[in-house]
Design a protein that fits this description.
This protein is an alpha/beta fold. The chain has eleven helices and 28 strands.
Length: 474
Amino acid sequence: MTIHPILLCGGSGTRLWPLSRKSYPKQFAKLMGDDSLFQASARRLSADGFAAPMVLTGEPFRFIVTEQLAQIEQAPSGILIEPEGRNTAPAILAAALWLSRKDPKALMLVAPSDHVIPDASGFRSAVQAAVPRAQAGDLVTFGIAPNRPETGYGYLEMAAGADPKASAPQTLARFVEKPDEARAADMLAAGNFLWNAGIFLFTAQTAVDAYRAHAPALVTAVEKALDEAQEDLGFTRLAPGPWAEADDISIDYAIMEKSTNLAVMPYAGDWSDLGGWDAVWMESGPDDAGNVCSEHATAIDCTDTLLRSEVPSLELVGIGLDDIVAVAMPDAVLVAHKSQAQKVKDAVTALKAKGASQAVQLPRDYRPWGWYESLVIGGRFQVKCIHVTPGAALSLQSHHHRSEHWIVVEGTARVTIDDEVKLVTENQSVYIPLGAVHRMENPGKVPMVLIEVQTGSYLGEDDIIRYEDIYARR
């Protein structure tokens, strides 16, 4: 039977700040290789017996999802847009209802899109081994064999007589909250506990029935949000009114901890949810001295240290460091003791309190047509680098308070200025007077890059009057 991957693609972007932020959560970043975590998740669940993935994500990420899937030559079976994040229970229910209306017996594999599972084939084998129990009407969750007394994960206690090393699903006794260090050590020694991976396999109908039994109010809200959903450019937008009435609750609390038809599929392979920079250090394969350095970072007399520069023009050097995490971005730098990596979210809170944009916004702003990055900002001017993907177009627009100069440095731009349309190639420039109705497009097969110089009394992104937009923005 075909397995339908359901990729959860939300997140607040706090645990791996400054690389991950609310505007660009960690699943979209290339943390472990050439693919983003989201792309790696989609590839892992792309094989015989697996359908195209369904993705649940938020409004700001919808075009990032489609672009990153296109980069790995995948097309989703559907993309459900959540009007706001309400935790995992409403999102998974929406997917279950969507699938059950087509095929109640459809198998759905729910997986976060920001996990690292190096052995993709081994993981798919574990999923296949769990299929019979899911088809029989069980709610199957996946448990990871623990190798340390981890306090950052929830645990799964297996029933008496269950085998944590089994190659088939076992009976699950209960879910256990994140423990303190002593309790985690006791559970590791007991040998009948697994880490809760937050990955689930069940039929769509089994899931819907569990929600109806244990969270009926949630079903009422999510069903209405799906019934009133709007189709938009290939996305399914869940209705915001009913969605706001859904409880903000995890699937564990909503149905899993209340259900009796539970099973756990043990998985002994490597797994990480990359829940902090200490996990990134561990999963990146430290050298003999315990160091992990990116291309533009150098460690001298350091031990057990992560040095990472995301800026090619910025060389990060550590000297005499031990157990340190240092991450450099164009607009922010993190330096922390590795043992304090879980407190990075506190830094985000502190930055929000002082009104720093770095708390939530990357310097590179991703849009449906590509991205832009501010290079220099002055009192009455701003310089941006704008990258437009092939075939994409910015909206037809005008500005009240600024004029613009565009210099094409790569590719070719088709530029509209009022009634004139012309091609602007590399090393050519064009001037957009204040108030002119204008648009830039990339008619070519390669990315188009230009430098934009804005001058005027106000340079905010809200100084835009849109007349036409192929992405249906207002």
